[in-house]
Structures are given as structure tokens and as C-alpha cells.
Batch of 4 targets.
Target 1
Amino acid sequence: MVNAGTNPFEQGEAIKSGLLFGVVTVAAKAAEVYIGEKGLYIAGAMAGLTDVDAISLSMANLATADAESLKVAAHTIVIAVLSNTLVKTGMAVFLAPLQCVVLSCGRRCVVDRGGAGARSHPLSQLAPLIDAFSQSQGG
């Protein structure tokens, strides 16, 4: 069962997404007009701090309207994704307990969920260290 407020198809969530898309589109267009390519890159980095969907849609519209701007649109999307990834990585590192990060990223994701090829993955070499850490923490 989905709790109220968590379903992205609810009217409130759809309105928020539409407003965010509108704001990002206006900001990206203004950045392009007043600053040029660098403005789009800045808008992509700023939009990526919260969400990648809006800037991706905005850049897709830009690329379809003007074929010459395809490269700029692609670079802007990459910048937004990198910005978003850095924010989420920072949140995981600074907000999650150390044991949760180590166990989730190290042992369970790489070795237990990796299937037959997991042992050949470079991070699988961390498995003994993660096991020792887990045992020392009572897990």
C-alpha cells in the first residue's frame, strides 16, 4: 500500500514536478540568452543539485528545436548528472552511519548480489575487511 504523499502520480506531486520543470526551463532559457553556453552549464549544475529530470527534459526540448545545440544540451545533461551524483554521494557519506555505508556499498552490493562474477570484481577484495569490521561491530 502506498502512503499518501509518496505516490508520484498524486496530483500534488505532479504539480510540483510540473512547476519544477517550468522553473528550470525558464532559468535555462534565460541563462542561454544572457550568458550563452556557459549559462546553460551553470543552470545544469544548479538544477542537478536537486533533480536531473527537469533539466534533461529542458535540454531535450532545446536539442530538438535547434540541431546545432545538441552538443551543448548533452554536455549540460552530463553536468547535471555529475552534480546530482556528487550531492547524493555526499549525502550518503555524511548522513549515513559508517557501518551502513560500508556494508551496503562493500560486501552486500559487490559480493552477495554480484552473482558468479562478483569475486572477480576489484571491490570484492574488500570482502574480508568488511566481514572483519562487521564481526567487530556485532553483526
Target 2
Amino acid sequence: MLHSRISSKLAKDAAEKCGLADTRVLAHFPGRKLERLNFQHPFLDRKILGVLADYVTMDTGTGVVHTAPSHGAEDFLTGVKYGLDVTSNVDEMPETVRHHSQTLAGRSMLVRRAEVFQVECVVRGYLVGSGWKDYLRTGEVCGHKLAAYLQE
């Protein structure tokens, strides 16, 4: 028997894509109930901390993802917030830095120069992410009272 944590909004689609015909819901609860719980890694002998992140969307997938603090800015900031270890494979870095592997291991990230894409975006009256839920419940985000006309 396979137990999985999947957003109820995405469960039917995920089951179809995985070829799972006989599925059933064991429980319904908000994702924040999983925060800071420990989960068994699906194929490694280790535990994984449950964390929350605003960049996990309900557009595709399961609504549950892994985070890799050494593989991107959003994941890195999530790792900092929850005190996760930053891991990296120094052996995959350029030869010029490999001889510093003992110093770099677990505290470095390989990044590549990207082409700058200039964008300016001003959005007023909209709120997304976990702040939206707080706003709907209390009219506040992080203790700050907000206007009553905001939209998701």
C-alpha cells in the first residue's frame, strides 16, 4: 500500500498520471499542519523536515515538493528560514575550485551567470501566497491591517 501527501485540488490528475485507479482519501487537512513534521524520505534512509513555501503552486504536480537549499534562490531562502543544511557536490564544480572541497562542502552553491532580463512590475490591490489566507481570516498580514478591497 502506498500512502502519499497530495493536494486535494491535484489528487485526481496526479492519480491518473501515475496510473493509479483505486485510490481513496485518508484525511483532509491544511498543508500548514505538515510544517515542521518529519517524513521518511521515499528511497533514502533519512528523515525530511516538512516546510512551507509560497512558490509551491496548485497549477501542476502534487502541491508537495522537495526543497534543495543549494539549488536555487527560493529553496536557499526556505533552507535558511528552517535551518536546513546547504548541500552541494563540490566534485561537480570546476577544477579550479575542487581543491577547496573540504572548505566548500555543505556551504557552497554553484551558480552560473545569467543574462539580465529587465522587468518592472507594480501591482496594487492583489495579494498571493500564505498572506492571502491570513488576510481572509483577519484582514492583516504579519500584524499589519490591510485595506478591505484586496484580491487574490
Target 3
Amino acid sequence: MRIGNSAAVASAISKVRPMERQSNINRWKPPHSRSGANRSVAPSYFTSQITRGDGWTAGLDQRLLQEFHLGLSFGQQKTSYLATASDVSAGRDDKVNSLGVRLSTTILRKGSIAVLYQNSHDTSNVGGYGFSSQQIGFELSYRF
């Protein structure tokens, strides 16, 4: 093959390009991160009280082995109960930490299947209001 022969050069390049495209598919991509914060004031379920809340969330999304998507999230929410009348006793403070994990993959081109895990832990300065929760879920979806 001579270098001056443009047909032979074009033929050689066309054989290399599919391999380049294939190597681009297998490249590792860094995780996508997300975060947020919130602050709220709202009426309470208890008479003559309001709630003041502050919270934040953070998460990462990562593609694994070209077939799976892994999502991790963590958050914290603090809620304070405040009296709106002088004859009402308030002062409860709650703090909830939560962790979530989601692993999903595509099926039948338009569908997806996922396994979910959620862990929440609430601590309160008033007895009877704290809790711990662990949930495992399964999700199946299809787009039309």
C-alpha cells in the first residue's frame, strides 16, 4: 500500500474507526453528584405550635458495568416544635438521618427494574417520638 493512494488510506481508516467507537463506549465516567438544602416553617399538627425545619441532602449516581445504575443518597432533617401561644408548652426537637440506595437496569429497551433500600433513624428529645426504619423495595416500570 502506498501513502499516496487515497482509496487505500480511506479503507485503512474505515477499519480503525469502529474500534475507536468501541473503546469510547467502555470508558469510565465519573459519578454525577447532587445536593440540596431546605428551610421551612409550617403549622404543626399540635394545637398552637409551628414547626421549623432545616435539612440537607447529598447523593451520587454512577453507571456500573455499562448495564446498571447505582444511586446513593444521604440526608439529614432537623425539626423544632415552637409554641405560638404563651400557655402552650413546646420544645420538642427531632433529627432524622436517612440513607438510600437504588440499583437499576434497563430491560426490553423501554422498561426498567430496580431494587431499593432505605434506612431512616429519628432521634427526639421527647420520649416516644424516635424511630428507626429499614425498607427494601422492588420497582418495575415500562414506558410507552
Target 4
Amino acid sequence: MTLPKLSIAAKLYVIFALMAATTLALSTVAVHNARQHAALTQEFESANKGSLNVERVNGLIYAVQSAARGVVMSPDAKAAGPYLADLNKFNNAIDAVISDWQTSVRAEDTQYFHEFSIRISDFQNFAPELARIATESGPGEARGWAEKNFPTDTRNQLTRDLERLSRHYADRAAQTYAQMSDSIARTGLLLSVLAAFAVMLAVFGALIISRSVARPIGAITRVTEAVAATLGLAYGYAVGLAVGVLTTVVACGLVAWLLLGTSPVVRVDDRVLRAGRARLPLGYVGRRAVVSPADTTRLRGRDADPSAYLCVRSYVRASVMVEVTDPQDPHPYWLVSTRRPEALLAALDEATASASADR
């Protein structure tokens, strides 16, 4: 069944269902985007944290070297004491940074971090041994040991490792930021499309209500106002203002009830065409056609056939003319007002075809 054949209620139900589905889609997209954005934000923060750890370890390595230089250049053990304290403090700080760093290492960081962690561990072994020799034998012995055993190759390789880790984390942060920007752009476009679709549905629903409900009610309101105003003025002038106002209010309600309550119902089922209280069996439905608003006005006015059956409403402009083929029926045709003449004609075509096939 096509959309024009649907009732007003069915059309509105479809629109409301689509609007509900659109709202659900908007919520789903928003929730999905929020989760994706949170994951990407966490990834971005992890990359930034990795870059920060690279800088922290690099600074601590320089601090360990400076403290070791202060130890070996001191004239005696007493003078070397503050440098030994700094040496142990900075070496322990490297341990703390590495332990914290390990908690945020991702799968794509493992290869770089594993090689770096082995070399930083080798480098850290230098400080405790230097401190032991300086404490037991003095700074002079520590200087001689350091000149022979300082891990120069390890230190140079650590510099290259840290540079490589820094580039890796910078690339990861840039890639994640690009993914976040693309995700925001895609989500914005999708939400805009869904929102535009929801607005379109709302406008379409408003048009249906306006054409099918508001206009007829507007015509009824105008008739009601005219009748009520006439009665109100008459009684108000004759009896008094209070009676005139009361008459107007009662007349408005009464006329509206009469117009709405007595509006004829037009329906097609599998046996008859119903227009108001009249029934026309489908077997006697002859030619039928949609009548334009201008022709409807003419056929229910000066060109009206006195013997025709008219089921018309003044506030409905279009109509359908149905020929009556029953020789016993005094009416040559029916003229039925309807806001959906094409739908009524299509329903008649379908019903008469079905009735003919059954016979």
C-alpha cells in the first residue's frame, strides 16, 4: 500500500516512528563517538606521557653523570658526601620513572622500550659501584675506576634510544590527533544529516497536520465564530451584555459540537462505499473521477443535479464523483467531498477490482 492510501493517523505514526528511530540513531552515534573520543584521548595522553618520560630520563641521566663527576673530582670523602647523596637520589629516581613508564607502554612501544630498558639498567649499575668505591677507598680510587669502567658505549646508545623513542611518541601523538580530528568531522557530518532528517520529518508532520487537520478545524472555527457572534450580538443587544457573552460561549460550543459530531465519514470496504449514512454496493459503482475544487463548487451549486446524492462539506474543496449503475437507485451519481480524492479513487479502484475478481 502506497503512502497516499494511508490514513492521517498512520502517516503520523510512521513519522513519529521515524523520528524516534532518528533520535535513537543520534543517541547511538553520540555515545559511540564519546567512547571513541575517550579511547583516542587516552591514547594521546599515553603518547604525551611517553614523551615526558623520555625527557625526564634524559635529564636524570645527565644528573647522574654530573653527580658522578662531582664525586670523582672531590678532594676527600667528606667533600664527596653531597655528591654521593645526589648520585643515589638521581639513580633511584630513574628507577621510579622507569617503573611508572612501564604501566603505560603499549604494544607498539614494546620493541623500542625493551631495548632501552636493558641499556638503562646497565647504565644504572655504574652508580652504586662508583659510590661504594668512593666511600671505601676515597674519591681518588673512584676516579681511576671510573676512567676505566664508565659505560661510554652504553651512554651513547642510550642517547640514540631516547631520540628514537621521542620520535616514536611524537609520531603516535600526531597520528592519534589526526584520528581524533577525522572522528569529530565524521561524527559532526553524521549528526548534521540525522538532525536535518529529523527536522524534515517534523516539517512533513506539521504539513500533514496543517493540511488534514488545521485547515478543516480553521473552517469550522470560522463558521462557529460567525454563528456565535451573530447570536451573541442579537441577545446582547436585546437582553444585555452578560447574556450576550454567555450566549456567544454556549453557541460556540454547540456549533462546534454539531459540526464535528455530524461530519460524515467516507469509507471503502470490501463490499460498499460509505458516505455519511448512505451505502453504495461496489457492484453498482460505475465510472468515477476526481473533481477539482472549482468544479466541486459548481456541481454543488448552480450546476447541481437535484437527483444526485451529495455528501459535501463547505470547508473541503475537492471531491470525487461516482456514477451509480443501479437502475433502481434514484441517484445518477454521488458527489463526495474528501481531502484525499486520489486516495479515495485508488481505494475504489482496488475494492471494485477485488469484488469483480471474487464474482
